[in-house]
Automatic annotation (TrEMBL):
Subunit structure: Associates with the 50S ribosomal subunit.
Binding residues annotated for GTP 2, in chain numbering: 223-230, 275-279, 339-342
Molecular function terms from GO: GTP binding; ribosome binding
CDD domains named in the record: EngA1, EngA2
Biological function: GTPase that plays an essential role in the late steps of ribosome biogenesis.
Example GO BP: ribosome biogenesis
InterPro entries for the chain: G_ENGA, GTP-bd, GTPase_Der, KH_dom-like, KH_dom-like_a/b, P-loop_NTPase, Small_GTP-bd
Keywords, sorted A to Z: GTP-binding, Nucleotide-binding, Repeat, Ribosome biogenesis
Pfam families attached to this UniProt entry: KH_dom-like (PF14714), MMR_HSR1 (PF01926)
Protein name (record): GTPase Der
Binding site for GTP 1: 8-15, 55-59, 116-119
Annotated organism of origin: Candidatus Campylobacter infans
Membership in a protein family: Belongs to the TRAFAC class TrmE-Era-EngA-EngB-Septin-like GTPase superfamily. EngA (Der) GTPase family.
EngA-type G domain boundaries: 217-396
Length: 486
């Protein structure tokens, strides 16, 4: 798939054009120069052809941070297939811009000069000054008024490849609804027959359509500011993908990067890592960081696994707990990463001690494995890949139906559910109806009578018999019959 990059100085309208071409608000935009710092990517369609478009940070050298941004943006342009160099039409041409455009033109790739903010006849006259760049393809744009973008899209389309057919995933909510109507069981043999039939339905219908083995693993990197999320992304993908700086809040837009590696049976698995903006305390979130926080939460909605980054040198605080709550809220697979382990003099006993503290404070993530690393030095970072594969396998696991019901039967014999107004509460059977994470419908005569403490007891019983490390387990009580109130 072809890649396109938008490149130019800060505040020339790259992010606005990025959103216009994407047809949705992907990049954060504001009147503040330098809102975009990392290279933000999205898959978009130009008519019937797909491509990856990148919104790069502005070309500026005013301080250390912006010099790093500039370097990152120029490296991204080197690797792109199509280059759109943007300038501000309300300003006169800059010699530095002209030099950069000339150097990029030497790459022998499709490149155009997009003159933005041409909103009037006066702007058009000024924009003619940019003919001095010697661009073979030049566009006059007003992105805010959507003028000139159709011509630009047509030019991009000429350089894209035709699409391949993509697989369509199906929704199985209807299956769960139909499950409610299968409640009248005359004897145990009938129940066993129906469980076997439901198991066949799951195997034949859900598994092939939810083809997790061939899907990319989406991994969100989350944590508070300056805990080393960007350094970890760079270490994982083995290149300077995200801008790293000692300035808190360097990352604003989510930064995504894919890497493919061999795994079991020499199969290739693709990891898509997303470096999200660091999260501050609510009272310290200002300006464009509010958009960044919302974008981080949106990323988590679509992720499979969260790498929760903690600063080992500073310990755990209340904000870490709140961020961990976001991962739990979105029912993600979770790996807790203790970064900056090299900054403390720690042995195995120290690691065990901090693990106990994490388990105590993050009780809702008791299933999450913990690993200590040094992202900046690259120490133990490679072990994260194996952890992700293991957690993802558990996260998308199909639990054996017969074994699941054997566990539920034994659990009820050992510790029956509390009665409701003297009436027996009985779980007839359980069946997994969804993956990522595993969701199990508990078919019962009194779903409202199953207390959360009993549900937690059942979860623990199931976890003792299945490997569910790193993944939440969702149990949903359902009426045996639709006409029963429970």
């Amino acid at each position: 798939m072809k890649t396109i990059i938008l490149i130019g100085r800060p505040n020339v309208g790259k992010s606005s054009l990025f959103n216009r071409l994407a047809g949705r608000r992907v990049a954060i935009t504001s009147d503040i120069a330098g809102t975009t710092r990392d290279t933000n990517r999205a898959k978009i369609s130009i008519d019937d052809r797909d491509c990856i478009i990148s919104d790069s940070g502005g070309l500026d050298e005013s301080n250390e941070l912006w010099r790093a941004v500039r370097k990152n943006s120029l490296e991204a342009a080197q690797n792109a297939d199509i280059i759109i160099f943007m300038v501000d039409g309300k300003l006169y041409p800059d010699e530095v811009d002209k030099k950069i455009f000339y150097e990029l033109s030497k790459l022998k790739k499709p490149i155009c000069l997009a003159i933005n903010k041409v909103d009037s006849k006066k702007d058009e006259l000024r924009a003619n000054e940019f003919l001095s760049f010697g661009a073979k393809k030049l566009f006059w744009l007003s992105v805010s008024h959507n003028c000139g973008t159709d011509e630009l899209r047509a030019w991009i389309y000429q350089h894209l490849e035709p699409n391949q057919n993509e697989k369509i995933e199906q929704d199985f909510d209807e299956y769960l609804q139909s499950l409610d109507e299968n409640g009248q069981y005359l004897n145990q043999n009938q129940l066993n027959d129906d469980i076997a039939e439901l198991s066949d339905i799951l195997r034949d219908e859900i598994s092939p359509n939810e083809d997790y083995e061939n899907k990319d693993i989406k991994v969100g990197i989350v944590g508070r500011v300056n805990v080393g999320k960007s350094s970890l992304l760079n270490a994982l993908v083995k290149k300077q993908r995200s801008v790293v700086s000692q300035i808190d809040g360097t990352t604003i837009d989510p930064v995504n990067e894919k890497i493919s590696l061999p795994c079991k049976q020499n199969k290739i698995k693709t990891f898509e890592f997303i470096d999200t903006a660091g999260i501050r305390r609510r009272g310290k979130i200002d300006g464009i960081e509010k958009y960044a926080l919302l974008r981080t939460q949106k990323i988590l909605e679509n992720a499979d696994i969260a790498l929760l980054i903690l600063d080992a040198s500073e310990g755990i605080n209340e904000l870490d707990e709140r961020i961990a709550g976001l991962a739990s809220k979105h029912e993600l697979g979770v790996i807790i990463v203790l970064n900056k382990w090299d900054k403390i003099s720690a042995d195995e006993k120290a690691f065990d001690k901090i693990c106990l503290e994490i388990k105590d404070r993050f009780k809702f993530l008791s299933y999450a494995p913990i690993i200590s690393i040094s992202a900046f030095g690259g120490k133990r970072v490679h072990k994260i890949y194996d952890l992700i594969l293991s957690v993802y396998e558990n996260y998308t696991q199909k639990l054996q139906t017969a074994k699941l019901n054997e566990i539920l039967t034994k659990a009820q014999i050992k510790h029956p559910p509390a009665r409701e107004h003297g009436r027996v509460v009985k779980i007839y059977y359980g069946v997994q109806f969804s993956f990522a994470p595993p969701r199990i419908a508990l078919i019962t005569n009194k779903p409202r009578a199953l207390h959360f403490s009993y549900m937690r007891y059942l979860q623990n019983q199931i976890r003792q018999n299945f490997n569910l490390t790193g993944t939440p387990l969702v149990l949903i009580p359902k009426n045996k019959n639709k006409d029963e109130s429970g």
